[in-house]
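BUG: 3D viewer hangs when loading the predicted structure for this chain

Environment: internal workstation, default settings.
Expected: structure renders.
Actual: progress bar stalls at 90%.

Input used:
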Amino acid sequence: MGGVSQIEAEYSVFECAFKHGPYLIYHLISGVDLPIKTQDYIHNFIMKHPHTEFLSIQFDDETNHNIELKTRYYHFLIRYARHPNFRIRKIAAYIRSYSIRFQQLIGVKRHYPMKLYKGANWCSITNELLEYILSKKNDVLSMFRHTFCCDEIFLQTLVWNSGFRTHVYHYQGKYSSLREIDWGKGNPYTWGADSQELSKEHDLSTLVKSKNLFARKFSMRYDWIIKEVESII
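Structure tokens produced before the viewer hung:
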């Protein structure tokens, strides 16, 4: 949870997809994501934007502070955060906490060969970018070992420090992965979770009118909205 293993997992997915390619575009989505456009719409949209990378990159002060928290110090024993043994989890958390405090005390500040950037890890990227990402695997795993939740940092860092930065899709003044996500009502909000009728209407209307290709997140606990979206597209 939160360690470099998340990056390793994404690389495994990327390598498997690349092996079966080449494809024009590769979509990284999770089990709680849902297409909110038809296949024809998605295909036509991608064809109209060749050589374009769809991923979010955030540049605000809050994001920069978040990057600092996740990368400045060495984060040890993260793999034990969800260990089935409660005592082991507790000991690992204790060691990690005091390790960070000690690093703060002695003024540790890790240095990186390039400026770090952050955004959502869900993306739609071209074969060219995927090939570049794969070529940097060893560098990435070395750079982000003993960091925290840098699956949201490594891809943006690679892109914005390369020529691919000019290929990032600019959408309504924001760099976007074309995912409809509501961070205002949740972390993120689960579509359809609010049982109030006005909220249900608002959720469905937002998804239907969205210019994005995918949305997250959904749950089978609120499958009514999944069925509604599927019936429309």
